[in-house]
Design goal:
The protein has 312 residues and is mostly beta strands. It has one domain (3-308). It contains 5 helices and 18 strands. The protein has helices spanning 3-14, 21-30, 97-103, 173-177, 257-262; strands spanning 33-35, 38-40, 54-56, 60-62, 65-73, 79-87, 117-121, 124-132, 143-149, 163-169, 198-200, 208-209, 213-218, 231-238, 247-256, 266-270, 281-292, 297-308. The chain is globular.
Amino acid sequence: MTRENTRELGAGIHRNHIGRRRFLATVATTGAVIGTSGLASADAGDTFPPNGITEWGTPVNLGNGEVRTFTTATPSGRPKYHGLLMDRSALEGLPSAAELEQSGAQRYTTKYGPDGESVVIHHKWSQEFFIPFPQTPSTPFTFLGLNWNPEGHPPPMAWEVPHFDIHFHMLPTDTVDAIVGPAAPTYDLPSTYIPDGYGRGPIVEERVITDMGEHMVDATVPEMNGGEFSNTLIWGAYDPDDDGTAELTFVEPMITRKYFREHSDTDRRGIAQPETYATAGTYPTAYAVRDVPDRDAIAVTIENFKQFSGGD
């Protein structure tokens, strides 16, 4: 696929663009300030995540370091963060696509294990992990799906650079584990469930991806308009109960290794919201990437949780 094809992909998604007013309203509710790198915050340098109110998941091995999930909640149980803490050393020593293909059967054997699994996701080799959250108080989030993609994945001229897919899932692991793709969806996705400014991909038979679900993207992101991919938020959907109607099932920061290597301070960005969710609940309205120098690590979180009504 050429850069012109990629622009056509962005244009196809852009036709579903509803407008930016609800997104800007969401930004306003987070109290964030729009800066040159998204929505910037002033909390970089603070101890993060906060001690005493954070619970940790079991670490897994990535590159020369480790990653682990965490959940932070107030003493009253109100959620503050679901997150992933990644050692900066994890950005080095990562397996290549050739290593995943050649040694996967010996080392990278299970997505539930400490070294993950070597799998082909969306036509490219990936190191995949399913990592539980230690707690998910008052939120629908269940586990984190982490993919290291040494050669990226389609579309070309957009996401075919080394990057990480960081899926905050809202379905059980066995449900997500059973999703097979690339495939065309067999369900309807109500327009009221599609987040503001997002659209379904124009290549129907490529919409549903193995171990993930359907992906939707904001057509205004740089890589869909001839620019460089660095940090993009994906919304995901699937039909978990096979009733013919899909719902939002994951939110996914998709971030390049280059961005992580160069990142400092805190980059917080608003999460566009749908008109309504399928089920009432507490959902995040922002995500953030934080440099955590006292841990020599980087944290990726969903946050600013708010209560939303549902379609039921």
